[in-house]
Design brief:
binds pyridoxal-5'-phosphate, 14 helices, 37% helix, alpha/beta, binds zinc ion, 404 residues
Length: 404
C-alpha cells in the first residue's frame, strides 16, 4: 500500500489526502502523489481484468471501499485494416467504448465514487457533457449513493436515458457545459456532495491514468511512439501522461520522455488546438461550442493550459477535425475494424488521418489512437450520413432481386 498525499500542481505545496482539491496558497489544482516502491513486470499476472488490477497505483487505501462495475482492461486492437487504409504499419486502437457504461468515463468516475465512499460522503454527482453522467450514475447505483447530474439540456437522448435508468437525479441545464459546471461546483461545495469531476477531481483523474497503464501492459511494457487523445477538459490527456510517468517511476517503463502526445479536438470547440497553433500557453475559451462531438463541447477546458504544457513536454501536436471529417472517420473505423464510435472517437481517427495525409506521422511508428465512447450513444448525428434502410414487403422474390 502506497502512502498518498495531495500536491499542488503549481507551487508544489503538499497536503494530507482529504476531501480537498484546490491549493490554499495559490488556488492551483491538487494532484495525488504516491510514495511508490518499484513494481515487477509480472506483478499483475493473473489479476482481475479491470483497471482495479493496478490497485497499489490508485488512490484508494482500503480495498473494501472499491466500487466496481468491472470497467477497464478494454481491447488494444492491432488495427491492420485501418492502418492499411491510412498507410500505417503499426496502428493500434484502444477501444474504450466497450466499458460497462460505454465510455472511458467509467475509469475516473469509478475511482472518484470509491474515494467518496472512503471519505464517508453521503451523495455524489457530476457536471457532464453526457458520458460522465452515466458513468457516475452507474457507480453511484452500485455504491448505494444518491447521484446528481448537471448537464446541458441538448446532449444526446441515449446519454440522458442511460443516466436516468441508473437512478440519477438529472438536471438538464438550459445552457452550455460551462454553465452546468459552474452550478455543479457551487451546489457541490455548499451541500458537501462529492462532485466527481470538480471537488473530487484530484482523485477522479487518477482513474484515467489507467488508460496509460493498460496500453503499456498490453504492448508488453513498452511506450508507444505516439498517442492520439481526444480533448474536452483535457483531464484525460494530462492523466495519461501522468500514468506513463508513474510507470517509469516504479521501473515498469523507461524512456517515457520520447513518446509524442497529440491532442484532438472538434472544429467548433477547439480552444486547445487554437492556443497550440497560436503558440500560446493559455487557452481562450470558446463561448458557444458548436460541434456534433457534444462530449468534447467544453468551451473553457479546466486542464487546457496543462495540456499545452504536456504537448510541449512530449514533442506534441494538436489538430482539429470538422463535422464531416468526424462522420467520415466514424464510418471508416466501423467499416475497417468493426468498431462503432461516437463523434469523440471520430475526432481522434479524423485527426490521425489528417496528420498522416500531412506527412506528420511516420508510417512505422507505433501509434495508439484512443477511441473513448460508443456510437450507440450518438445515433442521431450519425444517422444523418447513413443510407436509410430499404423497407420492402416480405416477399422473397422481390427481396432476392435486390441482394447482390
Ligand atoms: C467520449 C469522450 N471522449 C473524450 C472526452 C474528453 O475527456 P476530457 O474532458 O478528460 O478531456 C470526453 C469527455 O467527456 C468523452 O466523453
Ligand atoms: Zn499552490
Amino acid at each position: 500500500m502506497s502512502k498518498i498525499s495531495l500536491q499542488c500542481r503549481e507551487c508544489k505545496k503538499e497536503y494530507e489526502s482529504t476531501f480537498k482539491y484546490i491549493c490554499d496558497e495559490c488556488f492551483g489544482p491538487l494532484d495525488v502523489k504516491y510514495d511508490f516502491s518499484p513494481v515487477s513486470k509480472n506483478a499483475f499476472d493473473g489479476r482481475e481484468h479491470t483497471y482495479w488490477r493496478y490497485f497499489e497505483l490508485l488512490p484508494i487505501q482500503q480495498k473494501s471501499n472499491i466500487v466496481s462495475i468491472h470497467a477497464g482492461m478494454t481491447p488494444l486492437i492491432r488495427a491492420e485494416k485501418l492502418g492499411k487504409e491510412l498507410g500505417l504499419n503499426n496502428l493500434y486502437i484502444k477501444n474504450d467504448s466497450v466499458n460497462p457504461t460505454f465510455s472511458f468515463k467509467d475509469r475516473p468516475a469509478g475511482v472518484a465514487v470509491s474515494k467518496a465512499k472512503e471519505f464517508g460522503l453521503s451523495a455524489v454527482g457530476c457536471a457532464s457533457t453526457g458520458n460522465l453522467a452515466s458513468a457516475t450514475a452507474a457507480h453511484a447505483a452500485k455504491g448505494g449513493f444518491p447521484c446528481y447530474v448537471f448537464a446541458p439540456s441538448d446532449i444526446e437522448h441515449a446519454k440522458i436515458a442511460q443516466a436516468l435508468a441508473y437512478g440519477s437525479k438529472f438536471i438538464a441545464v438550459d445552457g452550455t457545459y460551462d454553465d452546468a459546471n459552474r452550478i455543479a461546483a457551487q451546489i457541490g461545495d455548499s451541500k458537501g456532495i462529492g462532485i466527481v469531476n470538480i471537488n473530487m477531481r484530484s482523485y477522479y483523474v487518477e482513474g484515467s491514468k489507467t488508460l496509460a497503464y493498460e496500453v503499456a501492459e498490453q504492448l508488453g511494457w513498452q511506450v508507444p511512439d505516439q498517442l492520439i487523445v481526444p480533448v474536452g477538459s483535457g483531464a484525460m490527456l494530462n492523466a495519461i501522461c501522468k500514468g506513463f510517468e508513474e510507470l517509469q517511476t516504479v521501473s515498469l517503463l523507461n524512456d517515457v520522455s520520447r513518446m509524442r502526445m497529440i491532442a484532438a479536438q472538434p472544429h467548433g470547440c477547439a480552444p486547445v488546438v487554437d492556443a497550440f497553433k497560436r503558440g500560446d500557453t493559455e487557452v481562450i475559451p470558446v463561448e458557444n461550442p458548436d460541434t456534433i462531438a457534444k462530449s468534447l463541447a467544453i468551451g473553457d477546458p479546466g486542464d487546457g493550459r496543462y495540456v499545452l504544457k504536456r504537448l510541449k513536454q512530449y514533442n506534441g501536436y494538436a489538430e482539429e477535425s470538422n463535422n464531416k471529417e468526424i462522420l467520415d472517420a466514424i464510418l471508416l473505423l466501423a467499416k475497417t475494424e468493426g468498431v462503432f464510435t461516437e463523434p469523440a472517437g471520430g475526432v481522434s481517427v479524423a485527426v490521425l488521418k489528417k496528420m498522416v495525409e500531412d506527412g506528420k506521422i511516420d508510417k512505422n511508428d507505433t501509434t495508439v489512437c484512443y477511441v473513448t465512447g460508443n456510437g450507440l450513444k450518438a445515433t442521431e448525428s450519425i444517422m444523418e450520413v447513413l443510407q436509410k434502410p430499404q423497407t420492402m414487403k416480405a416477399d422473397v422474390a422481390k427481396i432476392s432481386a435486390v441482394v447482390q
